[in-house]
Structure formats: structure tokens, C-alpha cells
Fold:
Amino acid sequence: MTAMTQDIEQELLQTVRRLPAARAEEVLDFAQFLATRIPAPAGNGDEQSLSEWERQIQQISLEQRAYERQHHKILERYDGRYIAMRQGQIVDNDTDKTALARRVRRQYGNESVLIKLVQSDLMEIYHIRSPKLAQEQA
Structure:
């Protein structure tokens, strides 16, 4: 194990320890997914892993575009629920994201399936706050 791998492992462990149990379980599910989906490197393995990774990103991007095209129709039926979209079709839905993800994993294995919360806003907006450092007053 290289020093970089050890650093990443340590940082990941510290991050997971700070998460609530349900979120930590999602991280574990994702890590297990990656471990089974991305082949072990032969040599440095970057080419093979990268191409598989790119394929999955492309598939999720296609699903995202399908979601955006159908958003108004999906919103009418699934507002406030999580949906699972595969090949441009909604294959499952639930109010519980974790339960939905588990069913989708059982049904479709490691295939790329978009899981998304249906909201009136097409794009999710994230507000990132940053701390302000107080300056010492003399």
C-alpha cells in the first residue's frame, strides 16, 4: 500500500466516522459497488478503470437528460419522491432513497441507474457556506 493510498484511506475513514449512520451505510454501499464494478488494476490499471468509469458517467448523463426532457410529466406523478430511471424509463420510486437504492441494486445489479429526488426545480441548487475569519481588533 502506497503512502497516497494510506492517506486516502485515512481521510475516507475520518469522513465516514463523522456521518450519521444512514449516510455512512450509503457510502459503504457505494464503495462496495465500486469494488465490484471496477476491475482490479493490471499494472497501473488506469486505462481500464477509466474507460469503465467514463462509460458509467456517460450512461448517467443520458439518464439525466431523459429526466430533464420528461421533468414536467414526472413531476406531476412523483413530486417529492425519489425515482429510479434506467434507459429513460422510471423503473421504481419511493420516499426512502436508501430503500429504493437497495431494491434497484437487487434488481439491476451494478447497472447504471439514476436515482433522483423529484422536485419542482429541474436543477438542484446547493448553497455552500464558508466560515468567515474574524480579524483581531487592536
